[in-house]
């Protein structure tokens, strides 16, 4: 103060000190609790990992031990079948073999799921040609589809993708098998096409469809939509598909509508060598004139028997065939495969949709001049005039082999031009 005095102020900080002490003690208590809980979680995680590893080892050992007597049982049943002469006994043997085969497949599926869940699956990612996956599946599953009266169609693909060949085959096989199993009538279609930097593989069917409420649970193990409908299996196929796709990083999608059908889709990265689409199916220019080996022809014909006969005929020339039943399907296939065939053989009358000449006009607008011929039993002047105006050869039905071959040779010569 001015007169050499001073002022002293006293403040009671007891409450603040007590609050700080309380906060410090609470902080220490929380830290101890967090530490204790973290330790408990670590112990629980370790126990869960040990349990999972133990489960995987148990499944592996059990699978091996079960496979041994199953194999022996299959051999004994096979020997028994060779000794039986009566038809009834043979039928019983066949059913027993089928049951043993089903048990073997279920054990193998459980082992696959166990490996994928445990993270023990080894993926060997490398370039894979999709047709090397598709073609064997056609040979394997076509008899199964034919036995059910279902049309199985697998569109060939020249795309190369980056995936594990074994697991990719298993994924597509399971999707195709499921489609055939749950389709009572109609057809099943497998195809792939390029979408940007990935290949999109789709399996379509005309089966019963999957309700929206079940579409999220359909990939769970032991989950089946219609367990009482007579289909065999335990619902493991889609569970393996989901886990394998997750491990490989492949996208998995599902569209379905009850009463219409379903579509399971799979997106797989393209190999670097196929970063850009192939626009034409031109064969090497050094091929001799008239050679038809390796030629690609699109056949648009709504008569299934005639289409099969034409395809069989041109296969003898070395020509590969893509078949469509109408104009819309043909355009859809071309859009998906992003490949322009060397020649088009178009039936003129294709039902209620566009005619052959109208389809040719749409092809010309989309892709420019394309080698095409019209096939028809129509001998009217109007059709001859339409073909002449469009520059289209008219091949009359019944189709003459020499005329069809002459057209293909001329198209091949044009395709070989630089």
Architecture overview:
The protein is of the alpha/beta class and 418 residues long. It folds into three domains: 16-118, Orthogonal Bundle (Helix Hairpins), CATH 1.10.287; 125-274, Heat Shock Protein 90 (2-Layer Sandwich), CATH 3.30.565.10; 296-415, 3-Layer(aba) Sandwich (Rossmann fold). Helices cover 50% and strands 17% of the residues. It has ten helices and twelve strands. The strands form three sheets. The chain has a five-stranded mixed beta sheet. It has a five-stranded parallel beta sheet with strand order 9-8-10-11-12, with helices on both faces. Strand 4 (187-195) and strand 5 form a beta hairpin. Helix 2 (87-118) packs parallel to helix 5. The N and C termini lie far apart (109 Å).
Question: Secondary-structure blueprint of this entry?
Answer:
Layout: H1 14-83, H2 87-118, E1 125-129, H3 130-148, E2 151-154, E3 160-164, H4 165-181, E4 187-195, E5 198-205, H5 237-248, E6 251-257, E7 261-269, E8 296-300, H6 304-315, E9 320-324, H7 327-337, E10 343-347, H8 356-367, E11 372-376, H9 381-390, E12 394-396, H10 401-415
Parallel strand pairs: 2-4, 8-9, 8-10, 10-11, 11-12
Antiparallel strand pairs: 1-3, 4-5, 5-7, 6-7
Helix pairs in contact: 1-2, 2-5, 3-4, 4-5
CATH architecture of the largest domain: 2-Layer Sandwich
| Strand content bin | 15-25%
Q: What would CATH call the class of the largest domain?
A: Alpha Beta
Shape: flat
Low-confidence segments, given as residue ranges, are 227-234, 275-290
> How many distinct folded domains?
3
CATH topology description of the largest domain: Heat Shock Protein 90
The oligomeric state of the chains shown is single chain
- Superfamily at the CATH H level of the largest domain? Histidine kinase-like ATPase, C-terminal domain
- Major beta-sheet overview: 5 strands, mixed
Distance between the termini: 109 Å
- Strand/helix succession: HHEHEEHEEHEEEHEHEHEHEH
- Output the strand order for the largest sheet: 2-4-5-7-6
Question: What's the Cα radius of gyration?
Answer: 33 Å
The helix tally amounts to: 10
Helix content: 40-55%
Provide the structure class: alpha/beta
Total number of beta strands: 12
Tell me, rounded to a whole number, the average pLDDT.
79
